[in-house]
Design brief:
alpha+beta, Lipocalin, signal, 8-stranded antiparallel β-barrel, single chain, 1 helix, about 50% strand, Lipocalin-like domain-containing protein
């Protein structure tokens, strides 16, 4: 009888710990993300193939996010865009398109020292603090 319960509880315990290991990071406010970050890759899945990027995000204390992207192919050189962002309910809310009131929610999936992984609407973004 005891062996049956133990055999049933082991897989459930393993599933619980596996799910809790990937718990999202709750941001208390924007001080957790302020400053410049290098967005070095994006992917459709957390463990999927990463597409390399040359992008810099600068989270400002006034609620603006300055984005600087460089075209690796050299066609458009550099593009600078400023959008609004805020931290609401532990997640980053950022404008999808400058000048529009449509925002997308990005949750921090992992944050370890100078590395951060975001899950936005369609993509995961992999960042390193500059």
């Amino acid at each position: 009888m005891i062996k049956k319960r133990t055999v049933l509880l082991l897989p459930l315990t393993a599933i619980f710990f596996a799910l809790s290991a990937h718990a999202d990071v709750f941001l208390k406010d924007n001080t957790d993300i302020l400053g410049k970050w290098k967005v070095y890759a994006e992917a459709g899945k957390l463990d999927g193939e990463q597409k390399k990027l040359i992008v810099e995000w600068d989270f400002k204390s006034d609620g603006t996010l300055e984005t600087k992207s460089t075209d690796g192919g050299g066609r458009t050189k550099e593009m600078n865009i400023t959008i609004k962002y805020s931290v609401v309910d532990g997640k980053i809310q950022k404008q999808e398109i400058p000048g529009r009131d449509k925002f997308e929610s990005c949750k921090v999936v992992e944050k370890d020292g100078s590395a951060m992984t975001l899950k936005c609407k369609y993509l995961y973004y992999f960042l390193a603090k500059l």
